[in-house]
Amino acid sequence: MQRNTHKKDKLFLMLLDISENLKQGGQYFLDFKIKEEKHLEEFQKEMKEYEHKGDVLVAEIIKDLNNTFITPIEREDALELAVHMDEILDGLEQCAAHFYIYNVYEIDHFMVEFSELVYKCIVEIHNAIDLLSQKKLTQIREHSIKIKEYEERCDILERVALKELFEKQNDIKRLIQYKEIYELLENTADECKRVSKVLETVVMKNA
User: Fold this and answer.
1) 3-state secondary structure of 206
2) Sign of the CA dihedral 106, 173, 150, 1?
3) Which residue windows are coiled coil (predicted)?
4) Is residue 112 part of a domain?
5) Is residue 68 part of a domain?
6) Distance, CA of 122 to CA of 185 (rounded, Å)
7) Cβ atoms within 10 A of the Cβ of 173, count?
8) With pLDDT > 90 as the criterion, what percentage of the chain qualifies?
9) Per the structure, how many domains does the chain have?
10) Residue 30 sits in which domain range?
11) What pLDDT is recorded for position 5?
């Protein structure tokens, strides 16, 4: 990705790298069309690659924070942003792994809608991190608000999905598997909300 790095602090560039990897992983998760059992292995392997890259980037930022005397935002806030962004990607990777382990290739409309909402959160996170890197702190709040709105929609979606699942699914094994996947996706949306809270904290401390 081409971006203007003029006068951007190294810490902000590292956070941007994490958010960019998250965005790419989220885009792949959303766009990949699972149609048959044979697709599951490819899907979970590719998501594992994004997750591994995320772990490497987080390890790098932790090392840099430990070796840097002055940071543009508080170390704790930078670390929380990095860790929660990584947790979002971990959640998506775990979901892909569950598809593979449970041999779930019949992706229902609830899973698609969860994926769309989580990706919308990820886009807002990436845009907010970009604004942070430019020190345009007052513009971050509108993205934080959108993240919370999408997360609330995931809360509602989970309830509707679980209600329909318990009403219509007669296969107990499949019921348990789908329930876990819905909950994983909703928990991933919760991590997006945690990022928005840290962003708001950064704005309050530094704006």
Assistant:
1) helix
2) negative
3) 33-60
4) yes
5) yes
6) 13
7) 9
8) 89
9) 1
10) 10-201
11) 44
